[in-house]
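Put briefly, the fold is written as integer tokens. The lines below illustrate.
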Amino acid sequence: MNLNLPDWVPWWVPLVLLLPALLYGLAFLFMPFSVIGLKSRLEGIEARLDEIQLDLRNLAMRGHETGAASVEYDDVYAPVPVAPHRVEREPIVDRPPIPPAAHALYNEDLPDDRPPPPPHTRPIRRGEPPPVSRQEPRVHWPR
């Protein structure tokens, strides 16, 4: 076993480091599960598994007693009632209506095209005053 320790380390240092690790591993190997708390958990899981298996057996026995072959198809699935006459309904629209074209809205005088806003500006509502731009940062902060 090569631990790659430097040459100046005495021969007994690896033994001192290895001995507590071995004792710790042996303690876990010989420790009973009840000390860790696993034994009670495993017993609880085993009891619950036994209950589930018993329930499954009971359900399987009930399924054989009822006689699944004696059930008629018409008893389980009722026939679909047929309407005596067909009622015309309006078609269901699953999308919004298509708006008319621009030339249909404006007869001959089309709206004036506005020039595009300058770049890097936010939209302004008509009632708002225009934003004030500052050239220099504010130096005197309120205290």
